[in-house]
């Protein structure tokens, strides 16, 4: 059964062993997990098998960005391994997104396919430095529209943009939001952050939480505090 919780815990660990030690403390009925570039590059598909075997729904966060044919093949490979969600970069463009979506349809694969808009670690000045002369909010909006027109299920954005995207793209269009920081937790490299409560109030569909739990002195206590914050919404 799918968990009703919006929490997705980012298993950003340098080994399969470390990731599974964390996963073994989590309850697959109470959260989903995310496998990113570091863990997948080290452990490969074995980590997906191990997490699926433990009953978790897995978001494979590899943020594909390549020519349409290559991305379509990568998305198919991910979906055939049974992941719940997979993503690519919206900046790869409409043809790339459509090719990936069409491949999943052709193969009758029901994995959620979403697109990263503007990384939550980026602010306006960093966008400007790569030649994008609009605010993160405006650029997220532009890429979310393109993603929706390409037929994907939703986007990765910051919770700061979720409310606007909710009115622009509707409730069913997924807003998956990393950059979640409880009030007392360091922001680190993240720039566009929100607290768990504010992120949900803004219309996020799912909250991606990594270091506030995984790097906490007591990860299970940190997770319980986030769950409690969400319950008192
Ligand atoms: O825009 C994005 C896209 C993906 N991420 C990923 O989410 C987690 C966040 O981890 P924290 O430790 O809670 O900062 C991490 O795996 C990123 O690769 C993101 O942060 N922003």
Automatic annotation (TrEMBL):
GO terms for molecular function: orotidine-5'-phosphate decarboxylase activity. GO terms for biological process: 'de novo' pyrimidine nucleobase biosynthetic process; 'de novo' UMP biosynthetic process. The active site is at 61 (for ompdecase activity), 63 (proton donor), 63 (for ompdecase activity), 66 (for ompdecase activity). Transmembrane segments: none annotated. Pathway: Pyrimidine metabolism; UMP biosynthesis via de novo pathway; UMP from orotate: step 2/2. Pfam families: OMPdecase. PROSITE patterns: OMPDECASE (PS00156). CDD domains: OMP_decarboxylase_like. GO terms for cellular component: cytosol. Its EC number is 4.1.1.23. Substrate binds at residues 12, 34, 61-70, 120, 181, 190, 210-211. It catalyses: orotidine 5'-phosphate + H(+) = UMP + CO2. Keywords: Decarboxylase, Lyase, Pyrimidine biosynthesis. Residues 6-226 form the Orotidine 5'-phosphate decarboxylase domain. Belongs to the OMP decarboxylase family. Type 1 subfamily. Homodimer. HAMAP family: OMPdecase_type1_B. Catalyzes the decarboxylation of orotidine 5'-monophosphate (OMP) to uridine 5'-monophosphate (UMP). NCBIfam families: PRK00230.1, pyrF. This is Orotidine 5'-phosphate decarboxylase. It comes from Aidingimonas halophila. The gene is pyrF.
């Amino acid at each position: 059964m799918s968990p009703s919780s919006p929490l997705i815990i980012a298993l950003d660990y340098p080994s399969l062993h470390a990731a599974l030690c964390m996963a073994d403390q989590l309850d697959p009925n109470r959260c989903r997990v995310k496998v990113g570039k570091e863990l997948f590059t080290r452990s490969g598909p074995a980590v997906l098998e191990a997490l699926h075997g433990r009953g978790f729904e897995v978001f494979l966060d590899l943020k594909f960005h390549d020519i349409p044919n290559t991305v379509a093949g990568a998305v198919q490979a991910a979906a055939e391994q049974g992941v719940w969600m997979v993503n690519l970069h919206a900046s790869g463009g409409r043809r790339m997104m459509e090719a990936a979506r069409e491949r999943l349809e052709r193969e009758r694969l029901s994995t959620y396919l979403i697109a990263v808009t503007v990384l939550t670690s980026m602010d306006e000045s960093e966008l400007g430095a790569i030649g994008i002369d609009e605010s993160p909010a405006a650029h997220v909006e532009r890429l979310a529209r393109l993603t929706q027109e390409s037929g994907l299920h939703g986007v990765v954005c910051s919770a700061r943009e979720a409310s606007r995207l909710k009115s622009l793209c509707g409730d069913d269009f997924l807003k998956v939001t990393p950059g979640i920081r409880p009030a007392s937790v360091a922001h680190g490299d993240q720039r566009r952050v929100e607290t768990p409560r504010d992120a949900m109030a803004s219309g996020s569909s799912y909250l991606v939480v990594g270091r506030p739990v995984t790097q906490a002195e007591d990860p299970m206590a940190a997770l319980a505090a986030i769950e409690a914050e969400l319950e008192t919404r």
